[in-house]
Amino acid sequence: MPMVDKAARWRVLWRGIRVVSVMSLLIAGLVACDDRPWNDPYPRDTATSNTLYSSFGERPKHLDPARSYTVNENTFIAQIYEPPLQYHFLHRPYQLIPLALAEMPRVRFYDAAGEPLPDDAPAAAIARSEYELHVRPGTRYQPHPALARDAEGAPRYLDLEPGALAGIDTLGDFAEHGTRELVAADFAYQIKRLAAPWLHSPINGVMGEHILGFAALGERLEAADPEQARARVALLRDTEFEGVEVLDRYRLRITLEGKYPQFSYWLAMPFFAPMPWEAEAFYAQPGMRERNLMLDWYPVGTGPYMLTENNPNLRMVLERNPNFHGERYPDSGMPGDRAAGILDDAGAPLPFIDRVVYSLEKESIPRWNKFLQGYYDFSGISSDAFDQAVRVDASGRPMLTETLEARGVELMTAVEPTIFFMGFNMLDPVIGGEGQRARLLRRAISIAVDMEEFISIFLNGRGVVAQSPLPPGIFGHRTGEAGINPFVYRWEAGRAVRRSLDEARTLMVQAGYPGGRDRDTGRALTLNYEAVATGPDDRARLNWLRKQFAKLGIELVIRSTDYNRFQDKIRNGTGQIFFWGWNADYPDPENFLFLLYGPNGRVEHQGENSVNYTNPEFDRLFERMRNLEDGPERQALIDRMVEIARTDAPWIWGFHPRAFSLYHRWYHNAYPNQMANNTLKYRRIDPALRAELRRAWNQPVLWPLGAAAAVLLALLLPAWWLVRRRERSRAL
Amino acid sequence: MSAYILRRLLYAIPILIGVNLLTFVLFFVVNSPDDMARMHLGEKRVTAEAVAAWKADHGYDRPMLYNAEAEGLGRLTETIFFDKSVRLFVFDFGSSDDGRDIGRDIAQRMWPSLAIALPVLLVGLAFNISYALFIVFFRATYVDLASVVLLVTMMSISGLFYIIGGQFLLGKLFQLVPISGYDSGLAGLKFLVLPVIVGVIGGIGAGTRWYRTLFLEEIGRDYVRTARAKGLGERLVLFRHVLRNALIPILTGVVVVLPLLFMGSLITESFFAIPGLGSYTIDAISNQDFAIVRSMVFLGAVLYILGLILTDISYTLADPRVRLQ
Amino acid sequence: MPLMPVVLWTDALLYLLLALLGGFAWHAARHEHLRAPWRRVARSRIGVVTLVVLGCYLLVAVLDSVHLRLRLADQSGATSAETRYSPEVLSLLDLALAGLRSQSEKTYSAPFATHLYVKEAIELPDGRVLRDYPRLVHGGAHLDDPAARGLDILWRGLLGALLGLALWGAILFALSAALARRRGITPALMRARIKAGRTEVPWRAALLTLASILALGGAVALLAGHYHVLGTDKVGEDVLYQALKSVRTGLLIGTLTTLVMLPAALLLGIMAGYFRGWVDDLIQYLYTTLNAIPGVLLIAAAVLMLQVYMSNHAEDFASLVERADLRLLFLCLILGVTSWTGLCRLLRGETLKLRESDYVQAASALGVGHFTIIGRHILPNVMHIVLITLVLDFSGLVLAEAVLSYVNIGVDPTMNSWGNMINGARLELAREPVVWWSLSAAFVFMFTLVLAANLFADVVRDAFDPRLRGAA
């Protein structure tokens, strides 16, 4: 081959190397023009600001307080909207305190003739109860264009010309933002919104049973023309109804039918947060909806934060509400709280944090790794990251692993007010019903399904075996020997021990299924399990379940289907055995025991009693229990109800999950509160420390770049050599 | 040529109607309007009245395909199908079942998908073709066999593990790039590095194998033998003849996927939290948001047909012997 | 009867496929022009090696496709005299692997481990509670001292390998005797030829492959009785058992899909190419429309539809195996629907070409009927395309199963499949210490099959494609 050719080739190669190195230098310069870590996912200027970083996995569907009912929506709106009441941050048992109100509501009872009754009157005598709410004067809404006014004091943006929205994409594009004072009529307006049929509020049905004239209001509003959004707002504003009366600028009266002590808990949910009518009138204008400008996406509240950036495709940003009325950090807590340092900020003005950035993060593995790198300030623990984060010491106490401890991460655990259980459909001829045979079968299965093993395999021990429907922390829950379910457990040496499989097999014999075969027909017993297979863990879970039933000789057929069909089966009562859960709306035993109340049956009454359990005595006791104040009388009733339920065993009681959360050392005032969602305002961070640690933890490791280049070269050179050799050999 | 294109565009209409009809039937057999209503109303405390009201509100209370109660043409037009699909043809996607404007979301989420897919395609193309040429150069030797084993190994690894491995190595261990996330503009560049690398590596197995087959087919042709008989060097044969002639199938293979790049990739976008159209579709399916699913399938079909037309055009450009009729 | 045979849908189809293959082989053996390409396959070293590997997979799959229900022991005091069968449907493979199937632990254990992979609270005899790794119930339970397991494994492994090789020796002798008789030489001479690699069919390569498979199989078989050779999964089931059971799933998806789509693709493809005009337009419209819908969506919708059907007819699917089987069949069907378009287009193109060929023109000038022409002249001449597509698609389909499981539209979650194993393993990867064996087992088993199939496909294509014949 001529030498010229060779030289030319080297020139080309050299030019290529030069281009590549210049480009990589450029890129490196682009990335490293400041001293931030290379893998920092946030824009430059936010490193040291008083900003909290968190994530969201699924975009919230509704940020309208009349509609939102899920945890991931509440994460946002509980910081923005302020309902009349809230749960005390530190006090246990959970205590309601005023939030948007100046004081706790005054409750009065009246009989059918309208005569006032004393507070301790029997529930049967009470025909009406009145709640009088005093709104805190001087509270103002967050800045919002709907509340902006022009020089004459007329609303600035409520009557927009067609075309005035050109160039407007978000609320921030409006030039002027205004505010106004919170008044009692705003609460009334929101309660009427709950009744409005076009808003599909999830608590429409429940409130219809309790608030006077609420259901009738819904029917009256039915007539509104769906095409005339603005007319609907006006109609809602003008309509009066007997359940809610605005007494003056700051006073409001809500009237309930009969007695409903749980109503106070509802007043602590965003459903009852005030809503300025101007906001709805603003969003009802033509052209707003097409720009995604609506109450579902741009909330208007009085709370400590407001939503300033709403891009569910990328990130959501909460910022401090400049008009916030001010609140102070609680100055009393439970014993030990002061020593733990949780009261260090007592009396300090809330909120502490200026800005909260929620980034879209769909998968758990990247989320977890970013937490470890310090880019999220707190995190839960997924089942499979558990071993990286937590080890359990000899006494069963969870402790952080050394890696996490070295980073100063802290762990917080709390049993959730939630129960997961396995339900037996009581309408099923084999497994359900009141017959002794089915009851014994259910109890045998309850022993055989080893929930301790389930918790240890699938939840890494993050759960407590349930002995009754009531989770710990809810009135009526009993601990120790008095709290165990005697049909499944024995009390031995100070702890509950699951009864042996032999006992379960004996029960099977008594039920007429010796060895899992029907004594009458000789046929092997086959039961169906209704499953919704959604994740990679399900396969293992289903196999585990089959193993549990196989212990008794029962063949468990997994009927796996999609979520809709599963729901259908439960609704129609055609399922046999299924897994189900319930998360408390409010910390009251009524909210759990009603899951077994006969008139709440799923098939007949579309209620939440998904197993369709009915027991007349249980129902009678429930009706008495729900109107009682907490006390010995209520405890006695609950004890008896739990005993009945355990005897009938309509559920395998399952477990109460224990929430583990981790937070970095610059994150302060973390305290488990399972009922309150508006706890963001109590949190405090130390941004300087965070910036420093992030830098220290995320120094880029550069040798792999060199190594990769070397490997590439090591692969290319022999290849080149091979090509040359082959060519030469061919040429010969 | 323009007459041909026009005819192909007209031909697209019945296909789009067919696609729409099929999507409709499939989706509704699986998710009845009742199911959709329940999904959107949440799990707790849902009543039959609420379900009925939701359906009426979102226009799902009509018959699906044929309205027996209406008069004349209304029998076909006063149905869910007509209602929901006619507007698609003017690219008016309406609003999703949870009330956001779909057109806006698509316009916004298209670019992130493209920002990942385009570099992956180009870099992958360059790498795969070079590697395939290298293998073909050594065909029927141990280099060939070893490469095929390597390629099949790479094909057998699920794409997921490239992602998890890439995040673990580059993001967690070496801390060179952010593990996941996205930003627009230049600031977004560092987020793209990892998904693009992972995408290219994940595509090597199947891609290179495909080009290898293509080149091998080309090498078996008579003109190559003639060229070799003339005494041309092996490398010249490969570059001057094989590669040039294989360019037509390569080109058409690329052109047909070009429009579909907009649709994004499903798993990559989820894992890297990239707000593209792939994750948009998957979210819509899991949330049973029929309005979005329908729009995305429609868009996908339009882009697919566009790809077919572009392929035909590129054929004529690449090979003057082909005439469009 | 001690057992009742059960024939599942996919079993029946697999038998049909085997029968078709047998029939085709018989037919091909009697026609020289059909035999020639196969002879080329048999003379390729890669061809026979991959054939041996594929044969082993096929053997496992066939064993796993003979299903039966065992009779239950008579119950004392049973009122009915009727014989009762267990509701559990088992296959011959299940019976052969009964030990593996029943020896489950509580949760994860590593390959050859004697202790569980996670710590547990162990109650000591004196009442104290200690957190440690407990001994396994089955894995290494015969050892008094777990520390001595290295030697035990080595000894058992060697013994097993020797047994395997002994079996191989028997096969070698039988084979060489048979071959020698056909050629009329002594077996010893035949063996010498094989050893020297001087046979037309590369028997040496085939036998060496078989030797390594048998030695490995023997070692594993002997070890599996006392250890979990590939560890156990999250709920303590043996991973080796799962991986073996997955062979059938993978193989069925790879073959049945093509089998079920074949009639439609053949008929429509040839019709479109042969008749042209409106028939062609219609068929093209059909496959363009189907292609325009993203495949994942189509599959998802179809699988969900099946679930709707099954929950509406729950009583027809009494046992778990039947439910899983129907879902597998349905998956094959729907994968066939999404993939027939490619073959259909190829066939259409080829038919268009053939139609213009002299002999077809001549036949049609002589007034031979359309369907006779198609059957006589066109169908036999496109069969090589069908065959090539079949082997080429095979590995792609096996891999597709794994991807579909990720989106939860793959086979039934209770069914053993590599896709399900890999899908489950994606969370295990994030564990610390990492659980690698489930994934590795699925990967190795799947990879071996896919690699063998791919290499085999290349050989078949080279042998059948006339254009490639004689190329370098």
| Portion in beta strands of chain A | 15-25%
The helix count of chain A comes to 23
For this structure, what is the CATH homologous superfamily of the largest domain in chain B? MetI-like
Number of strands of chain B: 0
Helix content of chain A: 25-40%
- Measure the end-to-end span of chain B: 8 Å
Cα-atom Rg of chain B, whole angstroms?
25 Å
In brief:
Chain A: InterPro entries: SBP_5 (IPR039424), SBP_5_dom (IPR000914). With 732 residues, chain A is an alpha+beta fold. In chain A, 33% of the residues lie in helices and 18% in strands.
Model description:
The complex is a heterotrimer of chains A (732), B (325) and C (472). With 732 residues, chain A is α+β, with helices and mostly antiparallel strands. Chain A is built from 23 helices and 27 strands. Among the domains of chain A are: 63-303 and 325-337, Dipeptide-binding Protein, Domain 1 (Dipeptide-binding Protein, domain 1); 424-659, Dipeptide-binding Protein, domain 3, CATH 3.10.105. In chain A, the strands form eight sheets. In chain A, strands 14, 17, 18, 19, 22, 23, 24 and 25 form an eight-stranded mixed β-sheet that branches. In chain A, strands 5-4-6-8-7 form a five-stranded antiparallel β-sheet, covered by helices on one side. Chain A has a four-stranded mixed β-sheet with strand order 1-13-10-9, covered by helices on one side. In chain A, helix 13 (436-448) packs antiparallel against helix 15 and helix 20 (616-625) packs antiparallel against helix 21. With 325 residues, chain B is mostly helical. Chain B contains 14 helices and no strands. In chain B, helix 6 crosses helix 9 (189-219). The longest helix of chain B has 36 residues, at 102-137. Chain B is globular, with a radius of gyration of 25 Å. The model of chain B has no long low-confidence stretch (mean pLDDT 82). With 472 residues, chain C is mainly alpha-helical. Chain C is 68% helix and 5% strand. In chain C, a hairpin with a 5-residue loop joins strand 4 and strand 5 (129-132). Chain C has helices at 9-29, 32-43, 45-63, 92-96, 98-102, 149-183, 187-196, 203-224, 239-275, 277-292, 295-312, 320-355, 358-365, 370-406, 418-428, 437-464; strands spanning 3-6, 67-71, 85-91, 120-123, 129-132. Chain C has a domain at 243-471: MetI-like fold, CATH 1.10.3720. Chain C has a three-stranded antiparallel β-sheet. A two-stranded antiparallel ribbon of chain C has the order 4-5. The chains are: A alpha+beta (732), B mainly alpha (325), C mainly alpha (472). The B-C interface holds B 14-16, 18-19, 22-23, 26-27, 29-30, 139-140, 145, 148-149, 152-153, 155-161, 164, 216-217, 219-221, 263, 266-267, 285, 293, 297, 300-301, 304-305, 308 and C 46, 285, 288-289, 291-294, 296-298, 300-302, 304-305, 308, 395, 399, 402-403, 406-407, 422, 426, 429-430, 443, 446-447, 450-451, 454-455, 458, 467-468, 470-472. Chain C: The chain crosses the membrane at residues 6-26, 46-63, 153-180, 201-229, 249-273, 285-308, 328-347, 385-407, 434-457. Chain C: It holds the Pfam family BPD_transp_1. Chain C: Belongs to the binding-protein-dependent transport system permease family. Chain C: This is Peptide/nickel transport system permease protein. Chain C: InterPro entries: BP-dependent_transpt_permease (IPR050366), MetI-like (IPR000515), MetI-like_sf (IPR035906).
